[in-house]
Structure formats: structure tokens, C-alpha cells
Amino acid sequence: MTEERNIERIKAIRQLLDEGRRAEAAELIVPLLPPDQAEIFEELSVEEQTRLLKFIEVGEAANIIEFLDDDDAASLAEHLDIKVLIRVLNEMEPDEAADLLGDIDPKLRQQSLDRMTDSEEVQSLLQYPDDSAGGLMTSDYYVFHQETRVGKAFDAIRQQPLQDEEIPYIYAIDDQERLTGIARLADLIRAHPEQPLQTVADPQFVSIEATADQEVAAQLLSKYDLLALPVLDENERLLGVITVDDAIEALEEEATEDFYKSAGILSPRDQQTAKSDLMVRGPIWKSWMVRLPFLLLTMIGGLLAGGVIGIYEEALETIVILAFFIPVVMNMGGNSGTQSVGIFIRGYVLGHIDPKSFAKHILREVAVGLGLGIILGFVAGLMAGLWQGDFQIGLVVGLSLLCTVTLATALGFLVPLIINKLNIDPAVASEPVITTINDFTGMLIYFFFASLFIAGLS
Amino acid sequence: MTEERNIERIKAIRQLLDEGRRAEAAELIVPLLPPDQAEIFEELSVEEQTRLLKFIEVGEAANIIEFLDDDDAASLAEHLDIKVLIRVLNEMEPDEAADLLGDIDPKLRQQSLDRMTDSEEVQSLLQYPDDSAGGLMTSDYYVFHQETRVGKAFDAIRQQPLQDEEIPYIYAIDDQERLTGIARLADLIRAHPEQPLQTVADPQFVSIEATADQEVAAQLLSKYDLLALPVLDENERLLGVITVDDAIEALEEEATEDFYKSAGILSPRDQQTAKSDLMVRGPIWKSWMVRLPFLLLTMIGGLLAGGVIGIYEEALETIVILAFFIPVVMNMGGNSGTQSVGIFIRGYVLGHIDPKSFAKHILREVAVGLGLGIILGFVAGLMAGLWQGDFQIGLVVGLSLLCTVTLATALGFLVPLIINKLNIDPAVASEPVITTINDFTGMLIYFFFASLFIAGLS
Known about the structure:
Two copies of one chain form a homodimer. Chain A has helices at residues 3-18, 22-27, 34-41, 46-53, 58-67, 70-79, 82-91, 94-103, 106-115, 119-126, 133-136, 150-159, 185-190, 214-223, 244-262, 276-281, 284-311, 313-318, 326-349, 358-388, 391-421, 426-453; strands spanning 142-145, 169-173, 179-184, 208-209, 228-232, 238-243. By secondary structure, chain A is mainly alpha-helical.
């Protein structure tokens, strides 16, 4: 977006760094907002980053690192002098610090934790996996006992600014640290200073367990239009809060992942190699690695389809024009199947598909496929017949398309539903399985109809 | 998600409505949160909805309608008694009211605007298209002159609760109504009551013009981790504010749209027919309508590929085993092209692809394609050679795959880049164009190598 301006700035920074004018280089970065600073940092080498960082105030440095990609942040952290690293970690939001520590060398992680000022907080966040609700939460929010007077809460807010002051909710807990209500800052402003917090806090709230998937957390924040979501343990004690910005990031990550998976680009969740910028700008061998598995798998389908044709070698020798329509049969089966898988995956992610209503979803999809198959089969059959001046071949092509499209459309739902029941992520495995089945069955159907309707074949 | 519990509740509500016990039916809805209430409403018929709504307090009704799908909200509004509708509209957030009014019958819209209490506010929001930043913004936020004392601002906040109190920012403007700074509620709490607002407000902020695309607004909110984004006119005057919840919705909409488009499912933006729930639960003919165009277009590719085979009819008659490898050549070209388009579209949406660096992107993709082509060509060529015991055919298959995969991968970037330059949405048009080109060129390449390397062929 701001690419062009950035490129100029990066060039200038590089030149200043080369000339040893580091302070001046830093001055080109300091006036920007942290996300823009991070964007520039990502274009620099780790050496350039560390040289620059020495001339940037530590709080600012913490902000920049928070906005870096996980991988970039980790490699920068590992290159920093440990004293600098610890000062930066102390300034970072606890959840971001925990994320960073989770990504770096375990030895360095332990050393850092030993020397950080508030390490218990970060340590407790570190125990949750990155992609769980617990892994997304921060410990940086205002929480008071429910009997606290509003005025007292205000005093505390005045005296203890948070690192990240963006959470506009105040959390009320009882003697057992259980969350009992949530108040908005605005509600507090409107309340009388002598009122206890529980008279202001709303006892009806949405929450999530720490072990839940981050996707569920993001969906809750989105569905209920929340700015932050409290995370509870099994005893309803308040453990942390997930802010909406982290939820957006999680949603974008998941959307990118689903998008890629549906195009046959594999990315093991913990490696995150298939991030959009990596696929467009990263090392080329990484692109190969994430794209090859799917292609190799589907190659089997193509070869199997060839095997089917091989069985009908004699028929093909007799009537060689049969080969002309191999592409259209394969093509239509593949494309209609891909559409169905796409609809399934998106509906599944958004919660519109209920794996329990198996039969209902499949029946609907068969009806959709039948309609598409009739229309496509008619058009292709007509064109084949006109082209060859032979309506026997037209009939064969038409019927083949009807069956192939209907089958492929239904399989587009059936296969992911089954894969889902096997507890495999349907977004990863569906496409190769379906492509293979479609290629294979498409040729079977086609040559079956050919041997049935064309005189002189078997 | 909460499907099962909901189904029970809906059954109970239906039964109570049938028995004329509307108040009791309403009681089953009232204790829920608005998004859950809306979920239940969406399962009911419009008649049931209107009957139920009479027993729900008007503020609550407004909340429910805000969370309904646009289509459902519009049809309910058109069925309501106009007096009820106007009372509901008065209670709705201005941006939601404007969205609803934009979706209903123009006559009813005018009647409603004539009788609403704060219609100017809504009227001014109505002038922006639904998918622009202006169409997403609300007029429900706190704005003060920059010289206002903090204490005075507090008094105003106390006396004028907003319909939606979730915006935790206070906006400071100058004499010309230009936005000069943004303060957080928490900053105000920490300030002295006599301080003027401009000493608290941050003069460095991100904003957007009203005419910009909603996607850009959502990206800014996401990139800068904002809870709300100010919308300005060309003179930097503050027109409204976009809240993060609307941005999330916009992002999900766009992601769904892109996802579908990449699977060849067309949805004209203004019709929004391809929404996930519609594709999974809606009328079957709608599914046909959005899926057919892509399938019919790509059918041309399949038939053209057949035409190419037709040209080589004699070669095929001589060596019929050539037909065995038509599927694998088509298959690999199609799949590697699809991967590239997927990567392009996602990178483009997330802003990682700069259409100006045309050559750089294409060159990188050619390198990726070449690597994939070499590996896939080698594997397929080897298998073909072993299967047929004939390494001439292996060579033909291998070289064909190398060229087809490289070409398809590069086209996966080239075609969307060109389509983008023509100001057509690349997500819609890329797949059919590429599929058609790939099918056609795949066969050309294959039979070209066959006639080159296999003795006895022309």
C-alpha cells in the first residue's frame, strides 16, 4: 500500500547505516506509527535492525517488535544483546512477550525469564499453546473485587496505566477470583464514586475457556461485537482477556490458511510457512515445499485416470475421437467438485454447516449437482454431437457429464464430511482426495457409456 | 455452534406462538444476548417474527434487528406496522438504521425518514454506498471542540449516553470541524478536569476518506490495532467513525467473497447471493445460478483442448497410448495454475502484492514454476516410462509436464495482474481464463513434444 514511500525511506536508512550515521537513520523511523515502523524493519536485515534499534528508545522498540511477524521478531530477539532483549521484553505487552519467548531458543527463553521483572505473568501465559484462547490472551487489564467502590477503581486506574490501555472494560471478581461482571469505562464515568463495582458491572457476559481454539474466541468476539473477551479456567476464575485486535489477526490467519489449503497449499500450523508474504516474497524453495505435496498427490489421480483409459485401449483404437472429449469430462468433474469443496470449507469455518446433519447436506448437494449436470451435459453433448456430426458421441459425452458432475458435486460435500468425522482438518485433505477420485471415476464413467452406446465397441 | 439448544428453543417458541401464547414465547427469547436472539429469529418466518416482536421491548427489538442478516432485517421491516418500524428505527444505531433503510422499499424508506426523530443523521449516512467507508461509519460517538475542558467533556458524557457506548475514544475538532486529535477514555480519566482536551488528545492518528473502499477501512483498523477509525471528508472534517465490529464483519464478507470467487462461484456484490448460509441452506436454483457461469466458461477450455487433440488425430491413431497421459498433463497444469491464482488473490487482498512490481512477481513465479515443473516432470516421466516400458513416451510426458507446469504457474500470476490492470476484479475473472488457457496449451505442448520425439509421428 505505502510501498513506494517505504522503498524510498528504506533506501535512505540503508545508506545512512552504511555511512555509520545511525542516529540519523533512526530519526527517519521514529516519527512513524509502530505498524509502519515494523513494515520498514521487515525489509531490513537482522544486522541492520540491531544497529538501528540501539538508537531507538526501548518502549518504542518494544512496540515495533510487537508488530513484526513472529519469525522476524524471533530472529531479531536472538540477535540482540541479552540486556537489551530483557529491557525490551519488560516493556512489551505480556501476551506479546509470551508469544515472542515461545518462538525463541529455549535456553535464551529461560535466561530471559530469569532476569525479567514481571516474569510470573509471562510465564503463566507461556503454558498455553499459541493457537488456543489462552495463547491469545493478555494479563494487562483492570480487575477489581466486585465490592470495590467506583471511586477507588478510578484512583487505581489513574495510578496504574496499563502498557496497552486499549481495553475499555473493567472486570469484577468475587472472593474466589471468579468473574462476576464486566463494566465499561463509560459506565464507571456515569456511576457515583461510592457505588460498589457490582452495581455497575453487567453480570451477563460472554466468556471462553483457556483451552478452547483461538478460532472459537475470534468467532465469539465477532458474533457478540465485543472489544475484549474474558478467558476463564474450569472454575470460572478470570485468567486473562483476549483483545479484538488479536482476534482479527487470528481470523485473518485462519482465513489465509483455509484459502491456501483449498488451493492445495499445505502449511503445518506450527510452521506457518504458507503466510501470504512468504509465498509472494520469501525464499523460493519454501514455495516449492508447501506446493509440491498436493501436486504429487493429485498426480496419482491423473495417472490412475490414464490407467482407466489404458483398459479401454482397444475401444480407443477403434474410435479415436473418444480421446477428444477426455479433457471436457475431466475438466467439468474437477471444477464442479472444487466449487463444492469451497462451499463446504467456508460454510464449515463460518459454522453454517452442521456435521451432524450429514444426510440433509448431502441430499441438497446431490440436487444441486443434478441440476448442474443436466445443463452442462446437455450443452456439451449438443456441441460434441454438432462438432462430430455424430449424436451417438454427443449422447455419450452428455450422459458422462451428467453423471460426473453430479457425482463430483456430491463428493465435494461427502469427502470433507467424512474426513471431518475422522478428525482430520477437511480443508487440508479434501481437495487431493476428491481430485483423485474425480479423475478416476470420470474416465470410468466416460468409457462405460462409450462401450454401452457406441456400436462396434466391445 | 449452539445449534442443538437453539433447535429445542425454536420448537418451543413455535408451539407457543401456535397456541397464541405470545408473551410466553417472547419470554424464551428475552433473557438471551442480541446475537443469539437474532440467530433464533432467522429461523422463524416473517409472520412469526412480527407476532413475537410485539411482546419484546422496542430497544431490545432494535438490538435484535441490528444483528439480523441484511435480507432478513429488510423483509421483517417491510412486514412491520410503520409505527412500530419507526419506533424501532429511532432506537437503532444510526449506521445500522441507515443500512436497513438502504435495503427496504424506497417508498417505505421515505415515509420512515419523514417520521423519524433524528432523520438528518441517518439521511447523511444514507448517501454513501454500502461498501464504502462512509457506508460503514456511525454518527454515534463523542466529539468536542479541542479547547473543551476535560471536566466539561466528562459532564457531557455523563448526561448523554450513546445508543452504542462501545466507542472508547473522544474526538477533538477545531473551529472548522477538522479532526485534530483523539483521546482515549482512560486518558481523560487520568487528566486534570481543567486541562483542555487538546492537551490529552493524540494529534497523530490514522483516518480514512468517506469514499474509500470498506476493505481499506478494515485493513487500517486491523493493521493499526484500532478500536475505531475516524472518517473524514476532503477538508479533513470529521464525518463519522467506523467501529471495529463493523470492520470484522466487512473482513469476513470479503474473505468469503474472495474464497468463493477463487472456487468459481460468482456473486455480484450488490446481490450478495453467494453468502455462505445461502449456498448451504438457501434455494437450490440460487446455487445453480452462481455456480453455472464459471462451469460453462471453463467448458470452453475443455472443448478447445479436445479440438487440439482432434488436430493430432492421426498421431493418436498411430500411437493410441498417447491418450493415456492426457489426464495427467491436464491435471498438473490445472492444479499448479490454481495454486498460483490462490496465492496471488490472497496476497493481493492482504496487500502483499504490488501490481506495480509486475516483472518482479512474474519472474519469481516462473522460478517457482520451473522448480515444480522439473520435479513433477521427472516423477511423471519416470512413471510413464516404467509403466509403458518405453522411455520415449516418458520423455514426452516429462517435458510436457515441465513446460505445462511452468507456464501454468506463471500464468497464475500473469493473468490476474493483467486483469487487475484492466480494472476487473482479478478474483472473479482469473480462474476461468486460466483454466481455459491451461487446458488448451497443455494439449498443444503435449502433442508438440509427441510429434517431435516419437518416431513415426509426422
